[in-house]
Records
---
Amino acid sequence: MYLKSLSLTNFKNYEHAELVFSPRINCFVGNNGVGKTNILDAVHYLSLTKSFFNAIDSIAIHHGEDYFIINGMFVKNGEEDQIYCAFQRQKQKIMKKNGKEYQKLSDHVGKFPVVMISPADSILISEGSEERRRFLNKIISQYDPEYLDSVLKYNKALQQRNKVLKEFSASGKSDRETILIWDAQLVKYGEYVHRQRADVVNELIPVFREYYSMISSGKETVRLAYRSHLSEGNFADALVNSLDKDSFLGYTTVGIHKDDLILEMDGHPVKLLGSQGQQKSYLVALKLSKFEYIRRKSGIPPVLLLDDIFDKFDAERVEEIIRLVGNSRFGQILITDTHESRLREILATHNTDYKLFVIKDNRIGEEIHNGIRISETK
């Protein structure tokens, strides 16, 4: 599977842009702030219906405009699919496949998988457990529609249970029958989510260790583990046992909404022990293991988006990463970098098809095998 073409209208810094991609490697070079990352984010929209970076769609609208449109042509199993994503202020976002609008955006997720590796991934280490749960959700939802539905229904039941608990806390009165209704919903959907998360982490672990060893030359011992209340015993019993505490606090203290991923290096949290380079290697290995897992589950390699991942890596490690992703297990790759000469040197050593796009002064220069074509981006 690969993205054949991309058209942007009023998307971020692009008033209009038309791009045709190589099925293998596509590089976007230019100074910081010229819009390299925005192209990758547009691809993320076409796959997962939303930005990788911002939850608010209006932020993606070009300054002074009222809407944005993203069009893309994916090729999968020899067939072409036109994907349309549009958002207008004060209106609902629209996703279409071959002209047919989706009734639910979630119905599109997983049809054209992508994996993004970005400096923004640092929040997986620096921020709280919510970010790491979101990481697991993004993996599983790309091949299991039931999982995403279960997460949404669990969260709705959790909101209702917490609402009742707040009433308990304020009034001092309890309604255990109502709580039991929401407990049953939490158990039903929570147990399914827990099983899927446990399975994915177990499968990620050996692949993650393999990738980290290749990227870092095996200098450190890394550990990845899944922590959940549901791994400790019966979820229904845990909810009953925590009811008095929950009623006092006014919220639910046990469940999959407290799940976490344990990220360690040499027996210590990577947040505390790892240098910037080590943490970045950890995250790249984690994301590449995500890629491999989705590839195995879906049967097709996701489009791999590498956003400025070479910052703080030495030349040897950069070349090792390019060598890794350039093998037959990977499909189409989109790379952004500020160092044009570095990418040229690395690509010159690999016998693979590629295109290099130079972004400068509001123009995109597309380098092909026998010349250069310039197109306005405005």
---
Amino acid sequence: NPHYLYILGESIGVNCDKIEMNTVVPDNVKQFTLEELKADDRITFDQSTMLINTEFLLSKEYEPSLSPYKDTDLQIHTSLQEAYEELALAVSDNTDSKLFVSSAYRTEEQQQELYEEDSSNANIPGASEHQTGLALDIYVQYNAGFGFIKTDAGQYVNSNCWKYGFIIRYPSFGKVETGMKYEPWHIRYIGEPHAKIIYNNHLTLEEYIHSLETGVWYEVDNYLTSRQEVNENGMISLPDNYSNLVISPDNTGSYIITVTK
């Protein structure tokens, strides 16, 4: 069953399986400096779990990790290249529609121009996810904006994009938390298992990040995840017996650690 039924751009919640985030105490937890971790080829540093809004702005020093999507001039964040290709293929296979991207990465200058043109629909510079390349505005032929959700492709994306590591960043139920109206066309890459938890637990990204207690480890499916702070000695705690691990700043002063067991 779909997570929501969409009617003319409004969503009605239906039952879904809530994801239980069980707290655990991993074995062999040790402390490492970020420099040590960056030299470890088992670890991927990315920016996928960053929280960006009017409270947590991007720093002036922020530099996104960008690369062109396939053979196009579309610049998107490197971490979502494969995931978006898989999502686009799934939409084509399940709805016979082709996804297009109307907006991906924007410079600070481009965001400033959009904000000056229409401050009611564009975030202030520094508060836009488009400045990271992690967000995509998508559409299908003849149907963009709210028209997107009226299509099979739009409903498929809104109900299934979490399977590919994406969330609907500004859901209809989350305006109080996000400060943004419902945007069924705006998808944001956050990766696994975070997208699954957010979708199934009916959360906004704000609610999810702030629900993670600093220093606590959670077990979800085949993953361990934790929100960690760098301590006064410049070190961070994580299990030593991992084979694949992702570290991402959350833009609030902490890091989200995701371990594949």
